[in-house]
Amino acid sequence: MIYYLIKLLITTLLIVLISEISKKSSLAGAILAAIPLVSILAMTWMYIDTNDSSTAVSFSNNIVWLIAPSMTLFILFPILIKKGLGFYTSMGLSIFMTIVAYYCVLYTLDKLGMRNVS
């Protein structure tokens, strides 16, 4: 139980730290957010939990296919804001379209026989 609390605390602190840094410098916050910290933490926790790097490798390989559709959020969100939509509406639509993009990529990979690439 303490191990899970430590994982939760470290992960939460990183997110809060990035948020606080972003208040002072959006560029510094963006640089930190662009580093795949969540993926790094997930792979680290997987390795610590299993002592097997193959799960982290499989996870990493699968992430590669999802990088392009994740850009949907970062491209669409500022466009919607500039078009005059509110923050929450823009964020909601951007998240929805990102989910659609993920499904499109996964569907395409499945049709190409590459769904489970690792």
Write a structural description.
The chain is mainly α and 118 residues long. Helix content is 86%, strand content 0%. The protein has helices spanning 2-24, 26-34, 37-50, 53-82, 87-111. Helix 3 (37-50) runs antiparallel to helix 4 and helix 4 (53-82) packs across helix 5 (87-111). The longest helix has 30 residues, at 53-82. It is flat and about 50 Å long. The two termini are 31 Å apart. The model has no long low-confidence stretch (mean pLDDT 90).
Give the arrangement of secondary structure elements.
Blueprint: H1 2-24, H2 26-34, H3 37-50, H4 53-82, H5 87-111
The total of helices stands at 5
Annotation, overall tally of beta strands: 0
Shape assignment: flat
The secondary-structure element order is HHHHH
For the terminal residues, how far apart are their CA atoms?
31 Å
Strand proportion, as a percent range, falls in under 5%
Main beta-sheet annotation? none
Q: Measured on Cα atoms, how large is the radius of gyration?
A: 17 Å
What do the pLDDT scores average to? 90
> Stretches where pLDDT falls below 50 for ≥5 residues?
none
Secondary structure: helix percent? over 70%
Q: Which secondary-structure class do the elements indicate?
A: mainly alpha
